[in-house]
């Protein structure tokens, strides 16, 4: 099963840039189906015996040695407050890379990979889990819930650290205050993290939850003046419902009123593949989540670039 899934994951990378999404479906209990972006999945395996980690977060069940690499195992059901119907059911690990780190998620069952149009994703309905969901999707007769893994990890690892004094001082020297940045990200946690960084630089963050909302906001702004004269830059996640970051970038570059905007793609999907896609769709820069000082440095680099162009 795992070999076939990984082959499907390799084929699914061809969807990138086409506003399509491939989800690996899994269950935490017999009732609900969940999904995770296959781009983040490294492998799937039956859960081996785990080594205990003294002093670990309650949601970390232990660690596993994967070919010499020690990987923490997160009990996903416990992390999102999902009560298991059968705690003794056989379990699997979904090993995934998020925000520059590798972790394994403990799940009850791994099912299959499905391909969806991003525009078919909907905001999560109100429920006890809605704080842990970024979107839902209808797959046949099933409602698939997409977990906000960034929120899960933030609760385990803690919030992003404050910027260094040197970084804040540099922002003051560059007089970055009063500038504005449009931020598009479907994760509430990620939006809050980015806003915190920008606010420490004295920059105002305009927050939207997906690419379509970002594009509509930019088009509305363009009625008064070119958005490039109103915004320092656009910071966008890549995987979002309604319109992903690749499509958002493409649409911005196609619009004569928007095409001069500086676009930074900021995502938990890391690696050379994304760097190639950034160049293909016309973004200016790519940064893997989440390092506060690295994001701040990218923003200040853009401030310097603008000041040099004016001088």
TrEMBL record:
GO biological process: chemotaxis; phosphorelay signal transduction system
Keywords noted in UniProt: Phosphoprotein
Coiled-coil segments on the chain, per record: none
Occurrences of domain Response regulatory (ranges): 180-304
Protein name per its UniProtKB record: Two-component system, chemotaxis family, response regulator CheV
Sites of 4-aspartylphosphate modification: 237
PROSITE patterns: CHEW (PS50851), RESPONSE_REGULATORY (PS50110)
Listed Pfam families: CheW, Response_reg
Keyword Phosphoprotein: yes
Residues annotated as domain CheW-like: 20-158
């Amino acid at each position: 099963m795992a070999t076939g899934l990984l082959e499907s994951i390799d084929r699914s990378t061809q969807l990138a840039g086409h506003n399509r999404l491939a989800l690996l479906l899994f269950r935490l209990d017999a009732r609900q189906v969940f999904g995770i972006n296959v781009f983040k999945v490294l492998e799937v395996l039956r859960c081996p015996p785990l080594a205990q980690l003294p002093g670990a977060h309650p949601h970390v069940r232990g660690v596993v040695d994967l070919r010499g690499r020690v990987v923490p195992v997160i009990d996903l059901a416990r992390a999102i407050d999902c009560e298991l119907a059968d705690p003794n059911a056989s379990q699997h690990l979904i090993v995934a890379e998020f925000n520059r780190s590798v972790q394994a998620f403990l799940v009850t069952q791994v099912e299959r990979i499905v391909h969806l149009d991003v525009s078919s994703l909907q905001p999560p309905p109100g429920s006890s889990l809605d704080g842990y969901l970024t979107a839902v999707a209808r797959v046949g007769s099933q409602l698939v819930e997409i977990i906000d893994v960034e929120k899960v990890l933030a609760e385990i690892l803690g919030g992003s650290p404050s910027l260094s004094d040197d970084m804040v001082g540099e922002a003051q020297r560059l007089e970055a205050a009063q500038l504005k940045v449009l931020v598009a990200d479907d994760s509430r946690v990620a939006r809050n993290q980015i806003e915190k960084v920008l606010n420490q630089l004295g920059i105002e963050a305009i927050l939207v939850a997906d690419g379509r909302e970002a594009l509509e906001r930019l088009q509305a702004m363009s009625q008064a003046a070119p958005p490039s004269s109103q915004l320092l830059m656009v910071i966008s996640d890549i995987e979002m419902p309604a319109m992903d970051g690749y499509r958002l970038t493409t649409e911005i570059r196609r619009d004569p009123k928007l095409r001069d905007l500086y676009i930074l793609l900021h995502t938990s999907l890391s690696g050379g593949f994304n760097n190639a896609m950034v160049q293909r769709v016309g973004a200016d820069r790519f940064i893997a989540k989440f390092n506060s000082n690295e994001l701040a440095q990218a923003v200040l680099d853009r401030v310097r670039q603008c000041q040099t162009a004016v001088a």
